[in-house]
Design a protein that fits this description.
Elements lengths: L4 H6 L11 H123 L5 H4 L15 H23 L2 H9 L1
Helix pairs in contact: 2-4
């Protein structure tokens, strides 16, 4: 049952012949009521503190939950950012690989084209040199087949009628050979640099 300090103060005991001293009992009851009232106030304060503590603890729990959710959100955002960065990096790498492959293919095609052009020029050079050699041989054979009369070969260096010098046949042949050799040398210089010729043709 619930007893209040006032109930303690007002409680009355039955009187008997050999009973306790009434004043002492009343004084003791007053003391008990005072202590009981103090205990009740302290208990009430503790209850209030407990309620406040519970409220504060609930706030802490709420803050902890919010922080935990924020941390999880940040972690998810971090993971998503890393995943997005990886995908972006993979795309960049694939694009770079495709471009590199295209550049390599283009370089190979260009090298193949240059080699093909070089081969064609070499064939043209060989054909041209063959024709030049045939022409030179024909010219030399023509010079060798020139026949002069014995008296014309032994003719004086000065023509009595014209007064002009007549070079001997051997000198004319040497000049023809020299001119032919210069032509062949010039053609060889041009044809021995087919890559330069390729560059000129492309320009």
């Amino acid at each position: 049952m619930n007893i209040s300090p006032l109930d303690i103060r007002k409680h009355e005991f039955k009187k008997s012949i050999r009973g306790y001293d009434t004043d002492e009992v009343t004084a003791f009851l007053d003391l008990i009521s005072i202590e009981f009232e103090s205990i009740i106030r302290e208990n009430s304060m503790l209850k209030d503190k407990a309620v406040n503590s519970d409220s504060q603890l609930k706030k802490y729990y709420d803050i902890e939950s919010t922080l935990r959710e924020t941390l999880l959100s940040a972690q998810r955002a971090r993971e998503e950012t890393i995943e997005t960065a990886k995908k972006h990096a993979d795309v960049i790498i694939r694009e770079a690989e495709v471009k590199a492959a295209a550049i390599i293919d283009e370089g190979r095609n260009e090298l193949s084209r240059i080699r093909s052009t070089f081969t064609e020029l070499k064939v043209q050079k060989d054909n041209y040199l063959a024709k030049m050699k045939a022409l030179i041989n024909a010219q030399l054979e023509m010079l060798d087949n020139l026949s002069f009369q014995e008296e014309e070969l032994n003719k004086s260096d000065t023509d009595s009628d014209s007064g002009e010098e007549v070079p001997p046949v051997s000198t004319e042949k040497e000049k023809g050979k020299k001119i032919t050799e210069e032509i062949v040398e010039n053609e060889n210089n041009i044809m021995n640099n087919p890559l330069d010729q390729v560059g000129q043709n492309e320009e």
